[in-house]
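Side project, low priority. Logging it here so it doesn't get lost.
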Amino acid sequence: MHNRYAGLAARVYNLDKPVGRSFGDIEYYRRRLEGCGGPVLEPAVGNGRIFVPLLEAGFEMEGFDASEEMLGYCREECRKRGLAAGLTRRTFEDFAYDRRFAAIILPLGSFQLVTDTAAAMAVLSRLRDHLKPGGRLILDIDPIDAFLGPSGSVRSWTTPEGDLLTLRDDRVETDHVAQTTLSHLRYERWRDGSLIQTELDLFRLRWWGVTELSLALRAAGFARVTASGNYEHGRAPRQGDDIVTFEAVRD
């Protein structure tokens, strides 16, 4: 199973990207959602890094994630802040709601976790079906440079208990036809110089071209598709951008 976000992976994610940490996206999404006039859905909500600040800003939020551990972190952050949150365990492939949303957001490349092209197109159609007429889908993707850079990086974090967590990221497969990469993510937990826990996750992602995803959104029934670079709305993406954000409207 790929992209589990469980165990040490969930712990590392929560340490590396705590609630409220912004890459420019929290402020961007807050601005773009102003006046949306209805509920907002965040699929792949994770630990609530963006979800919780948007709740605190007064938006009516719902979210889902495939990882119960990630949802646990999100629920705990909401509890500590006295926030009521609609959070459920669902996947991209099976999520369903009785109501429709004014906006759906997929920050920081979450959509790229769907690596099969046919499945990705089905997800786009499902997202469209869950929007009100005039509702907007806003999603980020990482450019191809982020996929094809150096492999073998090692990072580390210290837990509140004083343990050392390390992550080694080795890309083991690049499929230029399917536009996917497969990485082995080795997580280790150290205490007093001794290894006490280790886990290996298989992590797969898909990259999209800007024109390719624009066409895919239109094929899924969206209108008025725009792409912006580096959280500068209306500025066309260009070489060297760290992130590309799409905004698409359901007519």
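Brief comment: The first strand starts at residue 40 and ends at 42.
Revisit when time allows.
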